[in-house]
Specification:
alpha/beta; 8 strands; 7-stranded beta/alpha barrel; about 30% helix; 8 helices; eight-stranded mixed sheet
């Protein structure tokens, strides 16, 4: 059985803020995107960046301010780099745990509209990872409406419904009642020390599923972030090198 991997980066807004502030000539003048492009060229990795509308660390910035002058560049790289909804902003935690369908739908549409405005429709990916994951059962229909086919989870405890919790004992499954597939996160790279990355991925490959999903968070790459990880990119590259050496192919999970 051939195995494929998807890679998402959560909590993204720092790099958009930097590009906006620095007025770079190219998106890839930003060190963060430049490094992701290097990973794509070396390992073929496809990245989905799950973004916030507002930067809570610099609240004067929101993505409604981001210019559309880079749209052609976004589209030209959309075969490996896409943007998706994550949440309105980083805080508070668990923003959609008790959200109404209308509230979740409003935030998804807000961010989708902005992504398409400044990066083009080809760059938009339906959401797979809602901030802090947990959503009420009546919000799964909103995710389907938004084009989602797969949703990522970390543990059965992410969901309240007992039937869904039971299904989450499997690392990859399709839930007929909700019309969605669910995929367990194989690794949260920013939570995994460098020397443990390969072992964590080897464990995920032992699940015997046809797809695995990797996750990390943008802010750990930025040296002004309070919990900055100097080896964050090294951890990512270790994971990508391991998967390439195993013949695991990259995909966009919603494709």
């Amino acid at each position: 059985m051939s195995v494929e991997y998807a890679f998402a980066i959560d909590d993204c807004v720092f790099f958009l803020t930097e590009i906006f502030e620095k007025k770079y000539e190219s998106l890839f003048d930003c060190f963060f995107l430049k490094k992701l492009r290097e990973f794509n060229r070396n390992y073929g990795t496809k990245f989905v960046l799950n973004i916030f509308f507002r930067n809570d660390h610099k609240p004067d910035f929101n993505i409604g301010l981001f210019p559309d002058t880079y749209k052609d560049e976004w589209i030209a790289n959309s075969d490996w780099l896409r943007l998706s909804f994550h949440a309105f902003s980083e805080f508070p935690g668990l923003p959609y745990k008790n959200a109404s369908p209308d509230a979740l739908r409003q935030d998804i549409e807000l961010i989708e509209t902005q992504i398409i405005r400044f990066a083009g429709k080809k760059t938009y990916s339906p959401p797979a990872v809602v901030h802090f994951i947990s959503i009420p059962d009546d919000c799964f229909s909103v995710m389907k409406e938004a084009g989602s086919k797969y949703l990522m989870f970390l543990s059965p405890g992410n969901y309240e419904d007992e039937s869904l919790k039971a299904e989450c004992a499997q690392p990859l499954f399709h839930d007929e009642a909700r019309g969605l597939s669910f995929i367990k996160c194989a690794i949260v790279i920013n939570n995994t020390p460098l020397e443990l990355v390969e072992g964590k991925l080897a464990e995920a490959l032992s699940w015997g599923t046809e797809k695995i999903h990797l996750l990390t968070h943008e802010q750990y790459s930025f040296d002004y972030y309070s919990n900055y990880l100097p080896d964050h990119f090294d951890r990512i590259e270790t994971a990508l090198r391991f998967l390439k050496n195993k013949g695991i192919e990259p995909i966009f999970i919603q494709d």
